[in-house]
Amino acid sequence: MDKIKMTTPLVEMDGDEMTRILWQMIKDELLYPFIDLNTEYYDLGLEHRNETDDQVTIDSAEATKKYGVAVKCATITPNAARMTEYDLKEMWKSPNGTIRAILDGTVFRAPIQVKGIEPKVSCWKKPITIARHAYGDVYKGSEMKVPGPGKVELVYTAEDGTEVRELVHNFTSPGIVQGMHNINNSIESFARSCFSYAIDTKQDLWFATKDTISKKYDHTFKDIFQEVFDAEYKEKFDELGIEYFYTLIDDAVARVMRAEGGFIWACKNYDGDVMSDMISSACGSLAMMTSVLVSPQGYYEYEAAHGTVQRHYYKHLAGEETSTNSVATIFAWTGALRKRGELDGIEELMTFADKLEKATIDTIENGTMTKDLALITSLENVNAVNSEGFIKAVRATLEEML
Ligand code: NAP
Ligand code: MG
User: Is 70 helix (H, G, I), strand (E, B) or coil?
Assistant: First the structure.
């Protein structure tokens, strides 16, 4: 069989610890034998980020703007312990944060559903994709403890010095207060990323806020979404027969619990934080959750939702066997390869991505899986394998299919 050719390079962002080990195995076993893999390689491993003063992270994000599609391995976000472990010059920022800021993107997370690992909510037949607005609100709030009686106000001072004031509360006893903000541009970018991803994946888009109570703050989110939709996306949605559906956040939560799935749920920052954990835990495993960053201009960066699986890596370093789940990392590659194929009109690359995903799911549904899944599956006669064993089993299934 001839290897599949690629015309445009994929931006490849390598990472850390156990996922870096899986990364190499996936390329060796599941990609190189079948594809003339064309990537522009950026090593986002913490050592190399430190050597380059984190310039490599910025370069990789810029490359994503140039080529349009990236695939990223999980990376360490340094903390105090990592400063000593890696002898870092600085506590470098989260690469995901840096990349997201440069691409101005929104993260979409969806569970990978397989038979034998059914969602805890029995009516969910298809994945629910969560899109979280990753800017502002309580995450950039300023807070105060109010020590005793007194007046708290919001004050806006325009550049010309004029002031607008709004009373928050006349305190008669101690209390607490919080100020938060968002920016119309950021909400617009969020809306555009959501509408384009809905079109891209041909799924309905749901959005919800508490606009009945928050008549200016949340209502602005609702209005911006509607304006952007009507002006730029309505026609395309009608053409595809998909829907933009706005409702109150409590109504959305109630409907999600009765829904079949198969839609995108756009959430404000806090709602997305909370609801993505609900969806992922209801679907079984963080190792079965995909993640894609979509910029309003239509740049894509695919990755797994989980981290570098540090505990397994230390076992691996100690020479012990690991059983780390590579499914979400495999799906990061297939997502990126399919998108590359779509943009470059390479049918075989898209078909290959579909087949590799099917081979991965079939392998699990036929009973071969890593330990994390073996512990929660309803399948019987399960063959729990190690990290490498799983990837080799997927390769065997894939070779049968091709
Ligand atoms: P983690 O890598 O997500 O792993 C936490 C635990 O979840 C693991 O110890 C393991 O449980 C289980 N798990 C996660 N992924 C798994 C997989 N693929 N297969 C099997 N089990 C899996 O989080 P962490 O260990 O707390 O964080 C490690 C590093 O990842 C941190 O430095 C953090 O900054 C980074 N991180 C990066 C990203 C990213 O790049 N997107 C995201 C999150 C965290 P058991 O130990 O019980 O087996
Ligand atoms: Mg959270």
Answer: strand
